[in-house]
Amino acid sequence: MSEPFETLFEGEEMELSFGPQHPSTHGVLRVMLKLDGEKILDAKPIIGYLHRGTEKLFEKEPFPQCIPHTDRLDYVAAATNNQGFVVAMEKLLGITIPPRAAYIRMILAELQRISSHLLWLATHAIDLGAITPFFYTFREREEILDMFEAYCGARLTLNTMKIGGVPFDLPDGWVETCSDYINRLPAHIAEYETLLTGNRIWKKRTIGVGVISAEEAIEWGLTGPPLRGSGVKWDIRKVFPYDRYDEIEFEIPIGKNGDTYDRYLVRMEEMRQSARIVRQCLDRLPDGPVMARVPKVIRATEGMVYASVEAPKGELGYFIVTTEKATEPYRCHVRPPSFINLQALPDMVRGRLVPDQEAVIGTLDIVLGEIDR
Amino acid sequence: MTEDNGTRTPGDGPDKPDQPVEAGAPEEKKEPAQPGTAGGDEDDAKAKATAAAKAKAAAAAKAKAAEEAEPKPPWEEKPVAPEHQDATDDPDVAALNEALDGVVTSSDRFAGDPTAVVPADRIVEACRYLKELRGFAFLVDLTAVDWPEREEGRFDIVYWMHRFDDSKRLRLRIVAAEDATVPTVSGVWKTANWMEREVYDMFGVIFEGHPSLERILTWEGFNGHPLRKDFPVEGIDTGAAIYPDVYPPGGGPILEGEGGEEAAE
């Protein structure tokens, strides 16, 4: 930003504490901004306001009782959090889950991804001044929550997966409800796109904002849509297929420029791909049990495993260390995608204006429950 | 009664269906047959029906046994936990060991993931080699594990990295003593910055050369490192008072109320 003509005023730097109560920080994120006028010279995210010591709590709970704690990490995507933990536990114990359970898990996880992306779209659009998409996306998100409620009784903190399978079979009529929903969804997504994709204001606010190159994205450890938006074709579901993702066909959408607009397009396409996955799962849903043979008291061998799933925000990994015959994890570390993705924020906003920062925070799609654990 | 027995047999012993049928059937068949010959044709017919039921049950049991002989699907088998194997044959572990002459002190493969243990003071060297010459461009995770009783050092620091070309993952592990400092790898991967800050905050491991080693999840001045095994789960009195002017230090709004003193005791 070069000055068009000389000014009589001296440049004056100021420090601004942005958050932790600011609505566009999506929770309790605080960013210390160093400003020159409205230009951001530097930004420093300050986190920890929602720290609840989840990793400490894991160490005191038997393995199955850790699962409810995982719900509360990324609290808008509980199913994928559950999935990450149970996939890691199954790797540790050598359990193979029945195909029906795997398919139900994939359906739940993809619905959760859609619902998480809908929530992201709503809040991101509101941050940038577009209020209308909120009403549309929440209408569709509500239906997903209703489906979750019909399946497991909860809407947000689902606790819907067990080590070795899923706790329940699908209730009567659930498949039809879900199928109907998935048939309608692509039209809804097209509807959101008419509101935003070609919208001149939306484009002005997002194109070229928060650019991060592929090399920088890898260097900062970004995963999920922020990484794919920079053009890296990488998805845990394809690279290390868990459950039965290797039997399902889907594409990994990638962006080109690594800006906010590309990340927006990537997530929109991901919703379509998720709908495609759910459609295939519903069509192929095998019969059979939904739980593998798992001992009543789960005892682990000594060792350390890491397993990860593609959560809506990125790679969600669980690193579990156990001792011989232990019934609870000796140490359970969560690799939260939001925590790692947020670290790139200062690089993405440096030299931009304060409203651009809201666009970048929105596009990183952070959830503070997961960052602070 | 006999018919009861006949129908119950297949259900009774799903694991070993052959024995109860073959051992029990002939005797039980005879018992009702004895009064049958003395009494009349009706009983005889009954006995025959019983025999038929027995035969059917036996056939069913045999079919079941045959079914069980086939391999069960893996989810019905008892899960077999993965075993520890030596990972010196892993190409990356071997290459690391050769390039930095004998840097790998031991290696292990568990559940398909190779782990190489390297000395703490050579971790930067090892990471730089793996990143620049072996293509491990992506640091997935960095964390620590606390073993308070262990002799060779209290903390394990674990580095978990990824290579995009062939989707290979490798874990490095170092052992750090409680009072030792560990060289930072934030110069190798930028993303290690916050991960190391988290380890410092949660475990109190000092990373030497880190650009800004501050607490990240707790606040500056927090007393203790929460993920150490000797830190109580129920928490500690951090000395933080929300309204230090209104409430006496050490006490809070709960202690002020009626019965608060007793509750505290």
Enumerate the strands of the largest sheet of chain B in spatial order, edge to edge or round the barrel. Answer: 1-2-3-6-5-4
The total strand number of chain A stands at: 6
* Oligomerization: heterodimer
Q: Percent range for helical residues of chain A?
A: 40-55%
Gyration radius of chain B, rounded: 35 Å
Q: What percent of the residues of chain B sit in helical stretches (DSSP H or I)?
A: 25-40%
CATH topology of chain A, what is it called? Cytochrome-c3 Hydrogenase, chain B
In total, the number of domains of chain B comes to 2
Within CATH, the superfamily of the largest domain in chain B carries the name NADH:ubiquinone oxidoreductase Nqo5 subunit
Order of helices and strands of chain B: HHHEHEEHEEEEHEHH
Supply the CATH class of chain A.
Mainly Alpha
Count of all domains of chain A = 1
List segments of chain A where confidence is low: pLDDT < 50 over at least 5 consecutive residues. Answer: none
Q: For the residues shown, what is the average pLDDT of chain B?
A: 73
**CATH third-level topology of the largest domain in chain B:** Beta Polymerase, domain 2
Briefly characterize the structure:
The complex is a heterodimer of chains A (373) and B (265). By secondary structure, chain A is mainly alpha-helical.
